[in-house]
Amino acid sequence: MDLEKILPKDGPPINEVTKYIEKYKNDLIVIKYGGNVLIDKNVFNNFITDLCILNKLGLATVVIHGGGPRIKRELEKSNIQSKFIKGLRVTDKNIINIVESVLIDFNNEIVKSLKDKGIDAISMHTKNNNVIKVIPEAKELGFVGIPNEIDNKQILNVINQNKLAIISPLGLGVENKTYNINGDTAAMAVAKSLKSRRLLLMTNVDGVLDKNKKLIEEISSFKVLEMIKDETIKEGMIPKINACIDAVNNGVTAVGIINGTKPHSCLWEIFSDKGSGTLIRQ
What we know:
single chain; alpha/beta
Protein backbone atom coordinates (compact mmCIF):
# COMPACT_ATOMS: atom_id res chain seq x y z
CA MET A 1 0.00 0.00 0.00
CA ASP A 2 1.51 3.33 -1.06
CA LEU A 3 0.57 5.54 1.89
CA GLU A 4 2.15 8.61 0.32
CA LYS A 5 -0.37 8.43 -2.51
CA ILE A 6 -3.33 7.86 -0.19
CA LEU A 7 -2.63 10.28 2.68
CA PRO A 8 -3.13 14.07 2.48
CA LYS A 9 -0.06 16.31 2.84
CA ASP A 10 -1.60 18.06 5.86
CA GLY A 11 -2.58 14.78 7.54
CA PRO A 12 -0.84 12.78 10.29
CA PRO A 13 2.76 11.54 9.77
CA ILE A 14 3.14 8.27 7.83
CA ASN A 15 5.13 6.45 10.55
CA GLU A 16 2.29 7.05 13.05
CA VAL A 17 -0.38 6.09 10.52
CA THR A 18 1.32 2.72 9.90
CA LYS A 19 1.28 1.95 13.63
CA TYR A 20 -2.43 2.79 14.01
CA ILE A 21 -3.57 0.91 10.89
CA GLU A 22 -2.16 -2.19 12.58
CA LYS A 23 -3.92 -1.27 15.85
CA TYR A 24 -7.37 -0.80 14.31
CA LYS A 25 -7.32 -3.38 11.53
CA ASN A 26 -9.77 -5.79 13.22
CA ASP A 27 -11.87 -3.09 14.84
CA LEU A 28 -14.91 -1.04 13.98
CA ILE A 29 -15.10 2.74 13.97
CA VAL A 30 -18.42 4.59 14.07
CA ILE A 31 -18.36 8.22 12.96
CA LYS A 32 -21.19 10.69 13.50
CA TYR A 33 -21.04 13.85 11.38
CA GLY A 34 -23.29 16.64 12.59
CA GLY A 35 -25.45 18.36 9.99
CA ASN A 36 -24.22 21.78 11.15
CA VAL A 37 -20.64 20.74 10.35
CA LEU A 38 -21.51 19.75 6.81
CA ILE A 39 -23.18 23.00 5.70
CA ASP A 40 -19.85 24.26 4.36
CA LYS A 41 -19.01 22.72 0.97
CA ASN A 42 -15.27 22.56 1.77
CA VAL A 43 -15.93 20.74 5.03
CA PHE A 44 -18.27 18.34 3.23
CA ASN A 45 -15.62 17.60 0.58
CA ASN A 46 -12.99 17.10 3.28
CA PHE A 47 -15.34 14.66 5.05
CA ILE A 48 -15.80 12.66 1.80
CA THR A 49 -12.00 12.62 1.23
CA ASP A 50 -11.36 11.35 4.77
CA LEU A 51 -13.96 8.59 4.42
CA CYS A 52 -12.32 7.49 1.16
CA ILE A 53 -8.92 7.39 2.89
CA LEU A 54 -10.27 5.31 5.81
CA ASN A 55 -11.79 2.87 3.31
CA LYS A 56 -8.58 2.61 1.26
CA LEU A 57 -6.61 1.95 4.46
CA GLY A 58 -8.94 -0.97 5.15
CA LEU A 59 -10.65 0.42 8.27
CA ALA A 60 -14.19 -0.83 8.90
CA THR A 61 -16.18 2.40 9.13
CA VAL A 62 -19.85 3.11 9.77
CA VAL A 63 -21.15 6.67 9.30
CA ILE A 64 -24.21 8.31 10.82
CA HIS A 65 -24.98 11.79 9.50
CA GLY A 66 -27.11 14.61 10.88
CA GLY A 67 -29.08 17.20 8.95
CA GLY A 68 -30.50 19.78 11.39
CA PRO A 69 -29.77 22.95 9.36
CA ARG A 70 -31.17 21.44 6.14
CA ILE A 71 -34.32 20.35 7.99
CA LYS A 72 -34.68 23.84 9.45
CA ARG A 73 -34.34 25.38 5.97
CA GLU A 74 -37.01 23.10 4.47
CA LEU A 75 -39.42 23.70 7.37
CA GLU A 76 -38.97 27.46 6.96
CA LYS A 77 -39.78 27.16 3.26
CA SER A 78 -43.07 25.55 4.27
CA ASN A 79 -43.61 28.21 6.99
CA ILE A 80 -43.45 25.60 9.76
CA GLN A 81 -42.18 26.82 13.14
CA SER A 82 -40.27 24.19 15.11
CA LYS A 83 -40.76 23.76 18.82
CA PHE A 84 -38.02 22.16 20.91
CA ILE A 85 -38.27 20.33 24.22
CA LYS A 86 -34.88 19.71 25.92
CA GLY A 87 -33.08 20.18 22.61
CA LEU A 88 -35.29 17.74 20.69
CA ARG A 89 -37.54 18.89 17.84
CA VAL A 90 -41.26 18.28 18.41
CA THR A 91 -42.16 16.28 15.30
CA ASP A 92 -45.74 15.94 14.05
CA LYS A 93 -46.93 14.04 10.96
CA ASN A 94 -46.26 16.99 8.69
CA ILE A 95 -42.75 17.60 10.04
CA ILE A 96 -41.67 13.93 10.00
CA ASN A 97 -42.39 13.72 6.25
CA ILE A 98 -40.11 16.72 5.63
CA VAL A 99 -37.43 15.43 8.03
CA GLU A 100 -37.44 12.01 6.36
CA SER A 101 -37.17 13.38 2.83
CA VAL A 102 -34.38 15.86 3.76
CA LEU A 103 -32.32 13.18 5.56
CA ILE A 104 -32.75 10.64 2.76
CA ASP A 105 -31.73 13.23 0.12
CA PHE A 106 -28.66 14.08 2.19
CA ASN A 107 -27.83 10.40 2.65
CA ASN A 108 -28.02 9.85 -1.12
CA GLU A 109 -25.80 12.89 -1.69
CA ILE A 110 -23.10 11.44 0.63
CA VAL A 111 -23.30 8.03 -1.07
CA LYS A 112 -23.13 9.58 -4.55
CA SER A 113 -20.10 11.75 -3.58
CA LEU A 114 -18.29 8.62 -2.33
CA LYS A 115 -19.17 6.64 -5.45
CA ASP A 116 -17.90 9.52 -7.63
CA LYS A 117 -14.53 8.96 -5.92
CA GLY A 118 -14.64 5.23 -6.55
CA ILE A 119 -15.69 4.16 -3.04
CA ASP A 120 -18.66 1.83 -2.71
CA ALA A 121 -21.16 3.00 -0.09
CA ILE A 122 -24.64 1.81 0.87
CA SER A 123 -27.57 4.03 1.89
CA MET A 124 -29.32 2.91 5.05
CA HIS A 125 -32.53 4.69 6.01
CA THR A 126 -36.25 4.12 6.54
CA LYS A 127 -37.03 3.59 2.83
CA ASN A 128 -34.01 1.41 2.03
CA ASN A 129 -32.08 -1.12 4.19
CA ASN A 130 -33.52 0.22 7.46
CA VAL A 131 -31.28 -0.86 10.38
CA ILE A 132 -32.84 1.02 13.32
CA LYS A 133 -36.04 0.10 15.13
CA VAL A 134 -37.36 2.59 17.65
CA ILE A 135 -39.80 3.20 20.46
CA PRO A 136 -41.32 6.69 20.89
CA GLU A 137 -39.20 8.95 23.12
CA ALA A 138 -42.08 10.87 24.72
CA LYS A 139 -45.68 11.49 23.75
CA GLU A 140 -45.27 15.28 23.59
CA LEU A 141 -42.37 14.95 21.09
CA GLY A 142 -44.48 13.13 18.51
CA PHE A 143 -42.44 11.18 15.94
CA VAL A 144 -39.14 11.27 17.85
CA GLY A 145 -37.75 7.85 18.63
CA ILE A 146 -35.20 6.07 20.82
CA PRO A 147 -33.41 3.16 19.12
CA ASN A 148 -34.29 -0.15 20.74
CA GLU A 149 -32.93 -2.54 18.12
CA ILE A 150 -30.07 -2.28 15.62
CA ASP A 151 -29.73 -4.71 12.72
CA ASN A 152 -26.04 -5.59 13.22
CA LYS A 153 -26.17 -8.34 10.62
CA GLN A 154 -27.12 -5.95 7.83
CA ILE A 155 -24.43 -3.39 8.80
CA LEU A 156 -21.71 -6.05 9.14
CA ASN A 157 -22.69 -7.50 5.80
CA VAL A 158 -21.93 -4.11 4.18
CA ILE A 159 -18.61 -3.80 6.06
CA ASN A 160 -17.53 -7.33 5.13
CA GLN A 161 -17.81 -6.32 1.47
CA ASN A 162 -15.42 -3.43 2.20
CA LYS A 163 -18.22 -0.92 1.62
CA LEU A 164 -19.17 2.08 3.74
CA ALA A 165 -22.48 1.98 5.62
CA ILE A 166 -24.07 5.46 5.54
CA ILE A 167 -26.93 5.62 8.04
CA SER A 168 -29.58 8.34 8.45
CA PRO A 169 -30.79 9.14 12.00
CA LEU A 170 -34.25 7.74 11.24
CA GLY A 171 -35.93 4.58 12.48
CA LEU A 172 -39.11 2.59 12.13
CA GLY A 173 -41.57 2.13 15.00
CA VAL A 174 -44.82 0.19 15.30
CA GLU A 175 -46.75 -0.21 12.05
CA ASN A 176 -43.53 0.78 10.25
CA LYS A 177 -44.03 4.47 11.03
CA THR A 178 -40.98 6.69 10.56
CA TYR A 179 -39.39 8.39 13.57
CA ASN A 180 -36.70 11.05 13.77
CA ILE A 181 -33.77 10.25 16.10
CA ASN A 182 -31.26 12.63 17.67
CA GLY A 183 -28.09 12.03 15.61
CA ASP A 184 -25.81 11.48 18.61
CA THR A 185 -28.32 9.05 20.13
CA ALA A 186 -28.51 7.11 16.85
CA ALA A 187 -24.70 6.96 16.57
CA MET A 188 -24.33 5.86 20.18
CA ALA A 189 -26.93 3.10 19.72
CA VAL A 190 -25.14 1.78 16.61
CA ALA A 191 -21.69 1.97 18.27
CA LYS A 192 -22.98 0.15 21.38
CA SER A 193 -24.73 -2.53 19.38
CA LEU A 194 -21.63 -3.20 17.25
CA LYS A 195 -19.29 -2.83 20.27
CA SER A 196 -17.12 -0.51 18.20
CA ARG A 197 -13.56 0.35 19.20
CA ARG A 198 -14.24 4.04 18.67
CA LEU A 199 -17.18 6.38 18.33
CA LEU A 200 -16.22 9.77 16.89
CA LEU A 201 -18.67 12.65 17.21
CA MET A 202 -17.67 15.25 14.64
CA THR A 203 -19.10 18.60 15.67
CA ASN A 204 -18.26 22.30 15.31
CA VAL A 205 -16.40 22.69 18.63
CA ASP A 206 -12.89 21.49 19.51
CA GLY A 207 -14.09 19.09 22.21
CA VAL A 208 -14.84 19.35 25.93
CA LEU A 209 -13.55 22.62 27.40
CA ASP A 210 -12.74 23.29 31.05
CA LYS A 211 -13.86 26.34 33.06
CA ASN A 212 -11.05 28.39 31.43
CA LYS A 213 -12.20 27.33 27.95
CA LYS A 214 -9.13 25.13 27.50
CA LEU A 215 -9.46 21.83 25.64
CA ILE A 216 -9.42 18.69 27.80
CA GLU A 217 -7.61 16.01 25.79
CA GLU A 218 -8.73 12.99 27.80
CA ILE A 219 -11.30 12.53 30.55
CA SER A 220 -13.16 9.74 32.36
CA SER A 221 -16.95 9.40 32.25
CA PHE A 222 -17.06 10.07 36.01
CA LYS A 223 -15.18 13.37 35.68
CA VAL A 224 -17.27 14.51 32.76
CA LEU A 225 -20.47 13.89 34.78
CA GLU A 226 -19.10 16.18 37.48
CA MET A 227 -18.62 18.87 34.81
CA ILE A 228 -22.33 18.63 33.94
CA LYS A 229 -23.23 18.95 37.64
CA ASP A 230 -21.11 22.08 38.14
CA GLU A 231 -22.43 23.47 34.81
CA THR A 232 -19.04 23.65 33.06
CA ILE A 233 -20.82 21.58 30.41
CA LYS A 234 -24.26 22.88 29.50
CA GLU A 235 -26.99 23.22 26.87
CA GLY A 236 -26.49 21.35 23.59
CA MET A 237 -23.34 19.65 24.83
CA ILE A 238 -25.25 17.74 27.55
CA PRO A 239 -27.07 15.23 25.26
CA LYS A 240 -23.77 14.71 23.39
CA ILE A 241 -21.93 13.93 26.63
CA ASN A 242 -24.72 11.66 27.87
CA ALA A 243 -24.48 9.70 24.61
CA CYS A 244 -20.70 9.39 25.15
CA ILE A 245 -21.09 8.15 28.73
CA ASP A 246 -23.73 5.63 27.69
CA ALA A 247 -21.44 4.35 24.92
CA VAL A 248 -18.29 3.90 27.06
CA ASN A 249 -20.31 2.17 29.79
CA ASN A 250 -21.74 -0.28 27.24
CA GLY A 251 -18.89 -1.80 25.28
CA VAL A 252 -17.44 1.11 23.25
CA THR A 253 -13.74 1.45 24.15
CA ALA A 254 -13.61 5.26 23.84
CA VAL A 255 -15.50 8.18 22.35
CA GLY A 256 -13.90 11.21 20.74
CA ILE A 257 -15.59 14.62 20.45
CA ILE A 258 -13.81 16.35 17.58
CA ASN A 259 -14.01 19.52 15.54
CA GLY A 260 -15.18 18.27 12.14
CA THR A 261 -14.60 21.67 10.51
CA LYS A 262 -10.81 21.28 10.87
CA PRO A 263 -9.06 19.60 7.90
CA HIS A 264 -8.62 15.84 8.35
CA SER A 265 -9.46 16.00 12.07
CA CYS A 266 -10.79 12.42 12.06
CA LEU A 267 -7.52 11.16 10.49
CA TRP A 268 -5.55 13.03 13.16
CA GLU A 269 -7.74 11.51 15.85
CA ILE A 270 -7.44 7.92 14.62
CA PHE A 271 -3.90 7.83 13.20
CA SER A 272 -1.77 10.14 15.35
CA ASP A 273 -0.27 10.10 18.82
CA LYS A 274 -1.65 13.51 19.71
CA GLY A 275 -5.25 12.97 18.59
CA SER A 276 -7.47 15.93 17.80
CA GLY A 277 -10.25 16.51 20.33
CA THR A 278 -11.43 15.13 23.68
CA LEU A 279 -11.26 11.39 24.31
CA ILE A 280 -13.76 10.06 26.82
CA ARG A 281 -13.08 6.69 28.42
CA GLN A 282 -14.96 4.75 31.06
